[in-house]
Amino acid sequence: MTLPKIDVPTYELTLPSVDKKIKYRPFLVKEEKLLYIALETGDDNQMINALKDIVNECTFKVLNVNNLPIFDVEYIFLNIRAKSVSEKSQFKLICPDDNKTYVETEIDLTQVNVHVDDEHTNKIVIDENRNLGVVFKYPTLKNYGAGKGIDNLQIEKVFDIIADCIDHIFDGDKIYPAKDTPKQELKEFIESLPQESFKKIKVFFDTMPRLKHEITIKNPNTGVDNKVVLQGIADFFELASPTTR
Length: 245
Known about the structure:
Layout: E1 11-15, E2 20-24, H1 29-41, H2 44-58, H3 70-84, E3 88-94, E4 102-108, E5 113-115, E6 123-127, E7 132-136, H4 155-164, E8 166-171, E9 174-177, H5 183-191, H6 195-207, E10 210-218, E11 225-231, H7 233-239
Antiparallel strand pairs: 1-2, 3-4, 5-10, 6-7, 7-8, 8-9, 10-11
């Protein structure tokens, strides 16, 4: 005799990167188990793999999660959690003013959104006179890491990520697609840039869209109001877990 199946509700959200609607469902017990296991290990790779598996399953396997911008994956994941457990998440945060006092707080996950810097652009002009520059695509889970900024990575990894995120290089009317160029050549191109041009590239990564939420917590011991910014996969993975942080 076949056991009965439970109906699961379906919801819609809009992907921030392309303004496209997708369907998703809450996670099931098997996906909740993945969350617990990844959190217990505290390993970045485990968290990324669990994140990909959950998003893939809960969006009915219609998305190529490996190719989605990181902020899309974070946004989908947080919405899945909100519909799976509760739209409110209670957890503890450490107060930055003394770095030892923990305060319980609550966040409405429906109020967490993708933020875009007003000055952000993915087109970096290196030489305006000859119209030479680079157009970037956004980093994915496959080539970035668990929400770490490039300042927190080893230098060789930084150049790997920059090369992976190049969509094409332009020189006047000529276009050089990254997919048709060996990665080593792309890295050598980046390494040959003057410092001012490299700083422009860093600004692209520093200002790119990201899931971010700022909250204020009061330290009961010092009376100081602390602003805490949550961003990146590691923060929101724990925030979206079924457990109390």
